[in-house]
Amino acid sequence: MSIEVREHDAFVEFVGSGELSATEIMSVSAAFHSRTPKKLALWNLFDAQISYFKAEYFLQVAEKGAELARLRGEGARNAILVRNEDEGLLLHAYASTASAVSPVLHQVFLDRDDAVAWLRAGS
To answer: What's the pTM?
Structure first.
């Protein structure tokens, strides 16, 4: 389990690999955004095993994201990149939960270029 943080001009990219836990996702996001918040974030989970991110953790992660939204500013967006439609369904369910408690917009993608274009369109 690991999340590498890559800063780009307009957005931050969190690149996950291996088995990711909700705790790790919240920890890395909080550490980054409390130091140098970015309005736009790409969660690149293409090489991650997200089956450990269970529905029981959705609300907890979404609430943490809502807290961080204050630091990130109005119009914050999270693009979530996954490798297949099954993972996409899981993360769509998370995005629905997050939208109910957080002002951060979430969208799930199967293509990195599409995800980056969506982020940039919101800036």
So the answer is: 0.91
The structure tokens listed for 82 are 């996954």
Read off the pLDDT of residues 20-65 as tens digits, 9 standing for 90 and up: 888 888 899 999 999 999 999 999 999 998 877 778 888 888 898 8
DSSP 7-66: E-SS-EEEEEEEE--HHHHHHHHHHHHHHS--SEEEEEEEEEEGGGS-GGGHHHHHHHHH
Pairing mode, strands 40-49 and 12-19: parallel
Q: Would you say 69 and 34 are in contact if contact means Cβ atoms under 8 Å apart?
A: no
Task: Give Cβ neighbours of residue 113 (< 8 Å, ≥ 6 apart).
Answer: none
